[in-house]
C-alpha cells in the first residue's frame, strides 16, 4: 500500500480528494492509535509497540514512516512525537471520539 497523497487516487477516491487521502491514512491499522497515544507526549518505539499490543515491529515501522512522511509525527531525542499538524489533527478528531462514546451507549 503506497502513501496516500492528496490529488492522487487513494482507497475510496479516484480523485484523491485531500479528505479521502487523510481517511485512507488514518484507516490503516494502528495509525489512529499511534496519534492518540502520542498526544500525551513523546514515546519510544518499544512503548508504542507495548501500547499497540498485537502490532508487529514491521507494521509499526511502516506506520511510523507513513506518519512521518505525512508530517504528522517526527523523531525527537525523547522518541516519536506529534508535529504541530499532528497535534492539530488530534484536536480535531478528539470530539469525534467523545461523540463515539455517547453513540456506543446505544448498543448496550
From TrEMBL:
Pfam families associated with the record: HxlR
Ribonucleoprotein found in the keyword field: no
Key words, A-Z: DNA-binding, Transcription, Transcription regulation
Superkingdom classification of source: Bacteria
Any one GO biological process: regulation of DNA-templated transcription
Keyword DNA-binding: yes
Gene3D superfamilies: Winged helix-like DNA-binding domain superfamily/Winged helix DNA-binding domain
Organism from which the protein derives: Flagellimonas flava
Any GO MF annotation of the entry: DNA binding
Domain HTH hxlR-type: 17-108
Protein name: Transcriptional regulator, HxlR family
Amino acid at each position: 500500500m503506497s502513501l496516500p497523497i492528496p490529488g492522487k487516487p487513494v482507497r475510496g477516491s479516484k480523485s484523491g480528494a485531500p479528505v479521502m487521502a487523510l481517511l485512507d491514512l488514518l484507516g490503516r491499522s494502528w495509525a489512529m492509535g499511534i496519534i492518540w497515544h502520542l498526544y500525551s507526549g513523546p514515546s519510544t518505539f518499544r512503548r508504542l509497540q507495548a501500547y499497540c499490543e498485537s502490532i508487529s515491529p514491521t507494521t509499526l515501522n511502516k506506520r511510523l514512516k507513513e506518519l512521518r512522511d505525512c508530517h504528522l509525527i517526527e523523531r525527537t531525542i525523547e522518541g516519536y512525537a506529534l508535529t504541530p499538524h499532528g497535534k492539530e489533527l488530534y484536536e480535531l478528531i478528539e470530539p469525534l471520539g467523545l461523540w463515539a462514546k455517547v453513540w456506543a451507549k446505544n448498543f448496550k
